[in-house]
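User: Could you check the structure of this?
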Amino acid sequence: MNQFIRTQLIKWYLEDHRQLPWRETDDPYKIWVSEVMLQQTQVKTVVPYYIKFLYEFPNLQSLAEANLQTVLKVWEGMGYYARARNLHQAAKTVLNEYAGKIPDNIKLFRKLPGVGEYIAAAVLSIAFHQPYYVVDGNVKRVLARLFKIDAPVNKTASFKIFKDFADKLIDTSNPGIFNQAIMELGAIVCKPKNPECNQCPVHSACKAHQNGKTAQYPKRLSAKKIPEYYIAVGIVHKNNKVLITRRKSDGLLGGLWEFPGGKVMEGEPANQACIREIKEEANLQVEINYYLTRIKHAYTHFKIIMDVFDCNYISGRVRLKGPVDHAWVTIQKIDDYPFPKANHKFIPLLKKSERNCLELI
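Assistant: Sure, the predicted structure tokens are below.
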């Protein structure tokens, strides 16, 4: 049965797969970039970023020699910025330690920053035709339905179970095509909701389909409630410039720039929290001009509600507690810096407010 699944999947993929830019190359660097981007991000979002990224950094050397801020700016908006930081650092390592040649040895490749089991298997199978299997969300869903696997897909201990099934199923003679085929099947046919079983090349071998239980697979543990945090942020004006600060390079949104602010304490008015946070974070005394807007934004494991205030600098000299750098920039220069998506939700309003002020002068 496994041989039937392999044969049918590869045949289907070769005839019907989507035309995507990273499928038009055998360059390990370009395939690596695509796999990093496709982690946590949908294909339709990745395509324009992939094209833009390779325009700026067409080869590994150009990426390795680029400034991190430039890399983050090109990546800006796609999220999960640790991917960009790790890819940049890994490119430097390959250039310096492997003469610019991406290692085709899985032990060496996995030592590079950001290269986990999935990335290693994907790149080595697709670019180097080595028999390593991939297990991502799409693959686990396909496997769960094909073999009626009752292990919850979102339970850490279940991963080994899915790995074992994938290991037995992979086509060792054509691993790259097979891995792409099973991922493609999960993406466009064996979808989470309303799977198109009549379009599936292996539906006759699918145990969930045979038993009329496709909708019951994959099994999942109930998700925990996502916490929500209340944030106050200030646009601090001084001499026709505004203050921005840069986050430390590691951690969430590492290396990006943002406007100063922080969490609102329980029972604390947002405007007072804004003044307090700017004092604690940047050592500046400010006053509130007016309330600009409220932003809501969701990250993977939490949500934020952000109240944004327009402020005037009163006194003090910048001494940072938390951020690692700061800059006073004109509104016109804001676009030169990489910002988190939550900040981008109010930056257009900030620019509009600035234009209105200039028109009144």
